[in-house]
Specification:
The chain is built from 20 helices and 13 strands. It has helices at about 5-10, 80-85, 95-100, 105-110, 115-120, 125-135, 145-155, 175-185, 190-195, 205-215, 230-235, 235-245, 260-265, 280-285, 285-290, 375-380, 430-440, 445, 455-470, 470-495, and strands spanning about 200, 220-225, 250, 255, 275-280, 315-320, 325-330, 335-340, 345-350, 395-400, 400-405, 410-415, 420-425. β1 (about 200), α10 and β2 (about 220-225) form a beta-alpha-beta unit. The strands form 3 sheets. The protein has a 7-stranded mixed sheet, with no helix packed on it. Strands 7-12-9-10 form a 4-stranded antiparallel sheet, with no helix packed on it. The chain has a two-stranded antiparallel sheet with strand order 3-4. By secondary structure, it is of the alpha+beta class. The longest helix has 26 residues, at about 470-495. The structure holds 2-oxoglutaric acid. 2-oxoglutaric acid binds next to β7, β8, β12 and β13. The site of 2-oxoglutaric acid has 12 residues, from β7, β8, β12 and β13. This is F-box protein. InterPro entries: Cupin_8, F-box-like_dom_sf, F-box_dom, JmjC_dom, JMJD6_ArgDemeth/LysHydrox. GO terms for molecular function: cis-regulatory region sequence-specific DNA binding; metal ion binding; oxidoreductase activity.
């Protein structure tokens, strides 16, 4: 790695998002999201450490250098990219990749033999990932790179005859391609992990949890509340592989058996690793459903009145280091808990009224996911909120710990090591009115997710709640009105005590 990378590296600017990087942002979201343009927004110390490649298949060398390094090269105008792309050089890299993404594998291979520059571009692994997932679904044996996986699959399992090193590439400069490689290969920096300002609580009573966290809608990390889960001891790889043999789990846009997924996750190093996020795990593998129970704080589950028609509400989540969930807000205004059975996750959370830097929610609330990858967010946006008055709540949550994610909170999560977790989204009396408001929005058909009947969910839920808990909604509305009136009264007392002209207090002794 040339040392000039350090000085010229950041901020890198990947203005447009290539289609190849536009996979669904979060598995709980039911619709593909539109991409948004954005600019990198500053950076801190630009030094970085590369992951040591754990894969027996590949090394993490990069064919590309950041554009700034061209200034330091012997011939600052000689970018191999431009010389070797011919008239395609006028097209920005992200657009070029979108165009190449339309080609079948045969044409991509032919193109990569035309020049070294085209070799670099046509070897961009996300192009091959899209081909593998489109053509093979989850039925692939990962071979270290997506290109090799594709070649092995179409040649009946034989490894690629391509030289493992490929042609020698020098002097190809591209911020877009370099940052994609860097996001896949760099370690999380110490400064991104150091801040831990969440409240950690052990032994809370349910009443304390409600009063201190659920009612005021504040995150908390709960310790010691899943110690009795059999999953903590039982969920070794061998056990999960045995129990789930032949069953497929939802992994990004495809379904995969666990053995194929582990072969992939053990050997992958990419910017957005495929994440196993399955809502039907307990139906497919009932033993997994029996190996955990809902922690005592989250037992009120009002969506259960909808029976079969309830939106998806529980997921098993498995992923390698570097996988995770980019910024989003959970669906249907629900709150959630996330319990780690194995591994460690870094969390960053912003309250509902604070949109994280780099995230652009749409005005109608239909778009609540982030267009930037997790590593890209840390590289280009994490330091932007250092000086903010409302800094995010952050923590590293480890095996046996549970994070409470209050409704409406933005959150980003990255696995620091291979992790297995269970998460559930729920509606309790504390967020029932929020959820009903959400389901009633005029564009509910766009907003509601995790269920087939997006339009009628509000009415169905209201009737089912009324049948199961007569008077509950009215009672909650009354209490909410009383609380609002009490808040107003408190505010007007202070208003009257405050001298509007001077901004000081009026004392009338
Ligand atoms: O990746 C994770 O564990 C976090 C999952 C998450 O954010 C969610 O379930 O909403």
């Amino acid at each position: 790695m040339p040392s000039a990378f350090h000085s010229l590296l950041l901020p890198l600017n990947r203005k447009r998002k290539s289609k190849l990087r536009r996979s669904r942002n979060h598995p709980k979201e039911s619709k593909p999201k539109k991409s948004k343009n954005h600019l990198a927004a500053g950076s801190g110390d630009p030094s970085f450490h590369l992951k040591t490649s754990s894969s027996s298949f590949r090394s993490n060398t990069c064919l590309v250098q950041p554009l700034g390094n061209l200034l330091l090269s012997a011939s600052p105008r000689a970018n191999l990219r431009d010389a070797g792309l011919g008239s395609l050089r006028a097209i920005p890299d992200d657009l070029l990749l979108d165009v190449l993404g339309l080609l079948p594998a045969r044409d991509l291979t032919a193109l990569s033999a035309a020049s070294k520059a085209l070799y670099v571009v046509a070897s961009h692994d996300p192009l091959w990932r899209a081909l593998v997932l489109d053509e093979l679904g989850g039925w692939f044996d990962f071979a270290g790179t997506w290109r090799d996986t594709y070649v092995a699959a179409v040649s009946g399992g034989r490894r690629s005859r391509r030289s493992p090193r490929g042609p020698e590439i020098r002097g190809f400069y591209s911020d877009y391609l370099f940052q994609s490689w860097l996001c896949a290969n760099m370690e999380m920096r110490h400064e991104w992990l150091a801040r831990d300002n969440i409240q950690r609580r052990r032994g809370l009573t349910v009443e304390q949890f409600i009063a201190e966290f659920e009612e005021p809608n504040r995150p908390v990390l709960l310790e010691g509340c899943i110690e009795s889960w059999p999953a903590l001891k039982k969920w070794t790889r061998e056990y999960l592989l045995d129990e789930s043999a032949g069953k497929e789990f939802a992994v990004g846009p495809v379904s995969m058996t666990l053995d194929r997924y582990f072969k992939y996750s053990d050997n992958v190093q990419e910017e957005r690793p495929l994440y196993l996020f399955d809502a039907k795990f307990a139906e497919k593998v009932p033993e997994m459903g029996r190996d955990y129970e809902v922690p005592v704080y989250f037992r009120e589950d009002l969506f259960s009145v909808l029976g079969e028609e309830r939106p998806d509400h529980r997921w098993v989540i498995i992923g390698p280091a570097g996988s995770g969930s980019s910024f989003h807000v959970d669906p249907n205004s629900t709150s959630a808990w996330n319990a780690i059975i194995k591994g460690a996750k870094k969390w960053v959370m912003f309250p509902p009224e604070v949109v994280p830097p780099g995230v652009h929610p749409s005005a109608d609330g239909a778009e609540v996911t982030s267009p930037v990858s997790i590593m890209e967010w840390f590289m280009n946006f994490y330091s932007a909120c250092k000086t903010w008055e409302k800094r995010p709540i952050e923590c590293v949550c480890r095996t046996g710990e549970v994070v409470f994610v209050p409704n409406g909170w933005w959150h980003l999560v990255i696995n620091l090591e291979e992790s297995i977790a269970i998460t559930q989204n729920y509606v309790s009396r504390r967020n029932l009115l929020n959820v009903l408001d959400f389901l009633k929005k005029p564009n509910a058909s766009e907003l509601v997710s995790g269920t087939k009947d997006r339009v009628n969910l509000h009415d169905k839920f209201c009737s089912a709640i009324e049948a199961a808990h007569p008077g509950m909604v009215n009672q909650l509305e009354l209490e909410a009105e009383q609380k609002a009136a009490a808040r107003k009264k408190k505010a007007s007392f202070w208003d009257s005590a405050l001298d509007a002209n001077t901004g000081g207090f009026k004392f009338s002794f």
